[in-house]
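Researcher: Following up on the earlier apo prediction. This time include the ligand. It's pyridoxal-5'-phosphate, with the SMILES given after the sequence.
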Amino acid sequence: MLLLNPGPVTLSERVRRSLLQPDLCHRESEFFALQDEARQRLLATYGLDPDVWAAVLMTGSGTAAVESMTAALVPANGRLLNLENGVYGDRIAQICSQYGIAHERVIFSWMQPLDLDAVTARLDSAKDARFTHVAVVHHETTTGRLNDLRSLGELCRARGLRLLVDAVSSFGAEPIDFADDSLGAVAATANKCLHGVPGAAFVIVRRAQLSQAASRTYYLDLGRLARMQDQRNTPFTPAVHAYYALVEALREFADEGGRPARYKRYAALAEQVRAGLATLGIEPVIAPEQSSVVLRSYQLPAGMTYTKLHDALKAEGFVIYAGQGDLAKTLFRISTMGHVTCADMNRLLKCFARQL
Ligand SMILES: Cc1ncc(COP(=O)(O)O)c(C=O)c1O
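Model: Understood. Below is the ligand-bound prediction.
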């Protein structure tokens, strides 16, 4: 079965085999070597300086990393502006409410880009209660839209604000400008663009931010996790096998040419699927130049329900993904993350042609 949902992804044999390594106690030096290698390789993904940035690992899914980042990096006297155009932007607002973090939301249509004029107006009108942080989802997986981090970074830089980014479905493939001083942290996971398995998530955080980190959560306390990992330690029992797979996936990632190569591979696969579906009359709901290379959303063909399409493709060995919320009735999603090839996408397109 090939997984074309946005994670967990189809594994390479190399990564799958790495799950069968020896049983390992998380208090032994072998585990700390594994943890160190994962942390170093995560920083190397974007060529980051370990004196400036820390990769902080945790056991959990992508939401754990987003929650850990958000709960830690907005101080008690801070105030966050949350920009939303999909399910995952909405989730950050829920996390803020859960922890009592002072925040405001700017909610855009799920089908529209962030309106940066509206964001500017909101930032500049808040004279009495100034914002200290802005949160955004880089790749809003709800629709496949890539939000414009570069322009947002400029807005934040000009105002001395820190940007917190949910990069759960973009880290490892899409460019992220870590040289932008406004960027405070990004949260991501092992089982999407990095091609590991679910269970390991991480935050890449500016070390300077860690010294002021708040401690609102016990298990996901980013400051404590960073401190202990820097001392080759861990507060809890991590998902050791997920870490094995993450390290092997990161070695494979480097061997294959790193982030630029992964971007190129995804872009080619996404374009192949878009062009092939277009010949069958199926159009993307977001223009390719506004989309990530990771996932695209397509209009369901007239007279075809998602369930019918999903079940027919699953019978042929492909798992596609539904739209979220009301979008379930009108669109379906195809991710080209994971160990999938151009030949696989040709087979997929033939299956589509047979269904229509
Ligand atoms: C952008 C984004 N953020 C957060 C999440 C949540 O990740 P998880 O389901 O691993 O908790 C997802 C999952 O698809 C996502 O795409």
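Model: Residues 81 and 179 are 22 Å apart (CA to CA).
Researcher: Noted. I'll compare it with the apo version next.
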